[in-house]
Amino acid sequence: MGVESPLNEVSFKKGDNILNDEKVDLHIHTSASDGTWTAEEVTEEVIKNNISIFSVTDHNSVENVERVRKLAEEAGLTFIPGVEIDTSYFGANFHILGYGIDIYEKGLLKLILQNKVFMEEKDEESIKFLYNKGLDVSLSEYGRYYNNAARGGWKALNYLIDKGICKDTKDFFPLFDGWGNPFEKMNFPNPKEVINIIKDAGGIAVLAHPGAPFYRLDYEILVPEMLKEGIMGIECYHPENNFQVTKFCQDFCRANNLAITGGSDCHGTFFSKRKIGTPNIMYSSIKLAI
């Protein structure tokens, strides 16, 4: 039988064997946010890549968590319910992962819905900006546009791709020179609020990918600041964390008794360079109990 486990347990077990040598990927996205894979496809890829412990962490969504949990149980895999939530801090956009959460907790669901509304409103504002800039877009056309979730990405991006205005995310953000990054213009809840809501939902709040290039704070500043906000762990292993970032975060977590997590941040085929199971993370390399 598979096991759905919160992160604050001393260890995950399958029978009487601690899974120290099992492969882990605690950061995977599905078509419920900006990934391309369905719940079934994610589970198939987890099995194909010999991953035994995994989590689905969609952006501001828990839509596919229950379905993946059931599929993981049928496959004999250890599954951790998760989510990735946007937060605003120092005028910039940062991500906080929530693990071991109760996906039906009202405060969490309210926060997720609020963030989705923010993003929909900002998508519309971004289309208005591009219209005023003279590009071939219209808000009415955008309102009628059907976004196929299986493509990954988000509605405004896919609309602009289909209009031939950009090709991918690298082309998308430069369109807003003179206005600013649409994600950074959103007034998401602050980290302390997000962290407390994750805690209230029975979860562990973890700072996602501290080495991400879009973060406006250097990791050596960001990580200690997030500790002040109440963060409970750091995603030490991630494709965008180089050796220095990983080492700094590991040492910081050990010194402050924080959870150590990691994952591929795989979005299916949306970000082709991010592969499920990469980096190669073993259970013995992470720390889930705090």
The run of helices and strands is: EEEEHEHEEHHHHHEHEHEE
Query: What are the low-pLDDT stretches, counting only 5+ consecutive residues below 50?
Result: 1-18
Q: What count of helical segments does DSSP give?
A: 9
Instruction: Please write the CATH class name of the largest domain.
Output: Alpha Beta
How would you sum up this structure in a few lines?
This protein has 9 helices and 11 strands. The protein folds into 2 domains: 3-9 and 20-112 and 187-285, Metal-dependent hydrolases (TIM Barrel, Alpha-Beta Barrel); 123-176, no CATH class. Helices cover 34% and strands 18% of the residues.
Structure, explained:
The protein has 9 helices and 11 strands. The protein is an alpha/beta fold and 290 residues long. The protein has 2 domains: 3-9 and 20-112 and 187-285, Alpha-Beta Barrel (TIM Barrel); 123-176, no CATH class. Strands 1, 4, 5, 6, 7, 8, 9, 10 and 11 form a 9-stranded mixed β-sheet that branches. A hairpin with a 2-residue loop joins strand 2 and strand 3 (17-18). Helix 1 (39-48) packs parallel to helix 2 (65-75) and helix 8 packs parallel to helix 9. The protein is globular and about 55 Å long.
